Amino acid sequence: MPTLQAATGPIVCAVLCLNVSIAQAGPCSADIAQFEQAIRQSAGNPFAGLSAPQSVNAQLDRQPTPESLKQARDRLQAKFSATMARAKRLDAKGDRAGCASALSQARRMYIL
Fold first, then answer.
1. How far apart are CA 33 and CA 20, in angstroms?
2. In 10 A of CB 6, how many CB atoms?
């Protein structure tokens, strides 16, 4: 699914670049900053970007429509953004375990 990844990479980078805030010294701040930097650096990589498991329809050899691809991209982007926001919120609260879990989930969603 390189097309979905290639199309979402610049979108994710733009969202993260606009969402840069002064980092508070939470337990995961350095890890979050490092992950966001890696995402920004991967912007030119056509193989980097958001990734999701293959749908049942794709496994049944059904061709995706442009609209279904857009919907999947939008859902994935929203889920990734919410996961990163949750990691930052938990980091700001000092919740190391919660932050690490959310950040790990975000990392699994993004291929670097």
1. 9
2. 14
Residue 62's pLDDT band (boundaries 50, 70, 90)?
confident
Amino acid letter at 104? S
Q: Which pair of structure tokens corresponds to residue 32?
A: 């979050």
Helix or strand holding residue 15 (H, E): helix 2-18
Interatomic CA distance for residues 61 and 47, integer angstroms: 23
Going from N- to C-terminal start, the domains of the chain cover: 2-44+64-111
Distance between CA 76 and CA 68 in Å, rounded? Answer: 12
Q: Token digits for 27?
A: 């337990």
Q: What is the largest CA-CA distance in the chain?
A: 48
Residue 71: pLDDT above 90? yes
Flag whether the pTM goes above 0.90: no
Element (H, E) at 83: helix 66-93
